[in-house]
């Protein structure tokens, strides 16, 4: 079995198309730095790693996750059950669209590492594993539906946090603005100095903000991590 070991929990990932990566760990460590959320929703939880990180960070939180893929859902549910926080974690097997149409609750923090790329970018002659395609391309959950669902379920003073490709940030924020969701915090992430920004970590709220984006660089050189990155993830990675 493929198991990723963190300091306080383990994550089995052999049944998930999308394995644990830097994006999810960054988001789980970065989100909600100035607020202690109680009700948390993780959209498209995959292995469940972000939910588990939030359970570690916020000891009083109640965490719900939703996952469409059956194998990933079963794996996330098992990872929750085998964690130290199993009594306050639950995973639903459903699409997010089904979930937000049926649920009446609101959440203090909604978080998502959504599908990465536009489905229209897939070339017709590419042969891509179907589960991995669903996990990485946005046909199953376009930004429009992700943001609309977050708008419906977010508490008036809640936070919606996500990580997206930097080159889609303007498009994402334009959709969010339609639903009166305003960026209150943005961090641009690059692998090393001297290369282009790759990811945007974004928090949205229902209130005006005069925030200015910050920047995070992960490495100085191969496996030589910056102090900012180490400070962010040191409570999770074994070797930090």
- Counting structural domains, the number is 1
Strands of the widest sheet, in order across it, are: 5-4-3-6-7-9-8-10-11
How many angstroms separate the termini? 24 Å
Question: What class do helices, strands and sheet pairing give?
Answer: alpha/beta
Number of strands: 11
User: How much is the average pLDDT?
Assistant: 90
Radius of gyration: 17 Å
The SSE string, one letter per element, is EEHEHEHEHEHHEHEEEEH
Please state roughly what percent of the residues sit in beta strands, choosing from under 5%, 5-15%, 15-25%, 25-35%, 35-45% or over 45%.
Answer: 25-35%
CATH superfamily: Vaccinia Virus protein VP39
Number of helices: 8
CATH topology: Rossmann fold
What is the level-2 CATH architecture name?
Answer: 3-Layer(aba) Sandwich
Characterization of this structure:
- There is one protein chain.
- By secondary structure, the protein is an alpha/beta fold.
- The chain has one domain: Rossmann fold.
- Helix content is about 30%, strand content about 30%.
- The chain has eight helices and eleven strands.
- The strands form two sheets. The protein has a nine-stranded mixed β-sheet with strand order 5-4-3-6-7-9-8-10-11. A two-stranded antiparallel sheet has the order 1-2.
- Strand 8 and strand 9 form a beta hairpin.
- About 10% of the residues have low confidence.
